[in-house]
Amino acid sequence: VQLQASGGGLVQAGGSLRLSCAASVRTFSSYDMGWFREAPGKEREFVAAISWRDTSTFQADSVKGRFTISRDNALNTVFLQMNSLKPEDTAVYYCAAHRRGGYYSERGIPPRIVHEYDYWGQGTLVTVSS
What we know:
The chain is mainly beta. The protein has strands spanning 2-6, 9-12, 17-24, 31-38, 45-50, 57-59, 67-72, 77-82, 91-99, 119-120, 124-129. The strands form two sheets. Strands 2, 4, 5, 6, 9, 10 and 11 form a seven-stranded mixed sheet that branches. The radius of gyration is 14 Å and the shape is globular. The N and C termini lie far apart (37 Å).
């Protein structure tokens, strides 16, 4: 599985960006998909995830109400719509894929921990200026 993230860039505080992550896999619909971010000097952290099973979505508290994750299985793509961006959202954003399986995944609850994901994209840089 290869993941290609795109859509990052420089934006002013309060602005919006839409990230995309295209997956090269035939069974995309069988993968939970997640977005994580890594700011300079900080550990990679969970941003949002979407279930393979019923497209249930989950977001970190820091982005709730501002970021929305979605997927288009026909396009093998997951999106992250980011609105009301803040300087503290500045980071490299990574998409990740987790093949269905496990107690929570089978019940529509995708993972929110880095090491539970099987495949990672290369990252796309988002810079929010104040």
